[in-house]
């Protein structure tokens, strides 16, 4: 199994890197769902890991978006 993604590692990435990683994980999630539907899924825990990794990335993206939106008004 792959190593879990740590939030600290995600915070260090740029928004473009996060988006790329998110797209890769969504593709993997689709493939895992497809494998499960056809009875070929052997790593049932990987689906859970991918789903949680997607949530972590979305959380970090949202936090960066909010921080970027509030930062300029705080300086004024």
TrEMBL record:
SUPFAM superfamilies: Ribosomal protein L29 (L29p). InterPro entries: Ribosomal_protein_uL29, Ribosomal_uL29, Ribosomal_uL29_sf. Keywords: Ribonucleoprotein, Ribosomal protein. It comes from the Bacteria. GO terms for molecular function: structural constituent of ribosome. One of its GO terms (biological process) is translation. GO terms for cellular component: cytosolic large ribosomal subunit. Pfam families: Ribosomal_L29 (PF00831). Coiled coil: none annotated. Belongs to the universal ribosomal protein uL29 family. This is Large ribosomal subunit protein uL29. The gene is rpmC.
């Amino acid at each position: 199994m792959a190593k879990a993604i740590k939030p600290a590692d995600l915070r260090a990435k740029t928004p473009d890197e996060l988006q790329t990683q998110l797209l890769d994980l969504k593709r993997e999630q689709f493939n895992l769902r497809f494998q499960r539907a056809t009875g070929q899924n052997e790593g049932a825990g990987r689906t859970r890991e991918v789903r949680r990794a997607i949530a972590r990335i979305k959380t970090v993206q949202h936090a960066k978006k909010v921080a970027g939106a509030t930062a300029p008004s705080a300086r004024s």
